Each structure stands twice: as C-alpha cells, then as structure tokens.
Amino acid sequence: MGLFENLRNGLAKTRGVLNTPIEDIFASRKIDDESLEELEEALIAGDVGVKGALEIVE
C-alpha cells in the first residue's frame, strides 16, 4: 500500500468509529460524566489519541 492509501484507509476507519458512537452518546440524554467518558473512549478508539481526547472532553 502507498502512503496516501494508508492515510485514506486510516481516515475512513477514524470516521467510521467516530460517527455512530458520538451520535449515540448524545442522541437522547443530557451531557453528564458518563456521556463524557463514552465520548473520550470513542475519540481514543478513533485514533484521536489520549491527549487529544482529554483536551476535547475538557
């Protein structure tokens, strides 16, 4: 695989991981500690990284 194909595949994976869980987290409830923790987990799983996820959640 070439560099751009790897990048494209990685971004597609990240987009797929982020879209559904984040919609589910905030779909029908208020933002609380539990929903923020779920958001953090989704961001880390989406390759945002621990530092990036913590900055977004805070």
TrEMBL record:
Residues 22-58 form the Signal recognition particle SRP54 helical bundle domain. InterPro entries: Signal_recog_particl_SRP54_hlx (IPR013822), SRP/SRP_N (IPR036225), SRP54_N_sf (IPR042101). GO terms for molecular function: GTP binding. SUPFAM superfamilies: Domain of the SRP/SRP receptor G-proteins. One of its GO terms (biological process) is SRP-dependent cotranslational protein targeting to membrane. It holds the Pfam family SRP54_N. This is Signal recognition particle SRP54 helical bundle domain-containing protein. It comes from marine sediment metagenome.
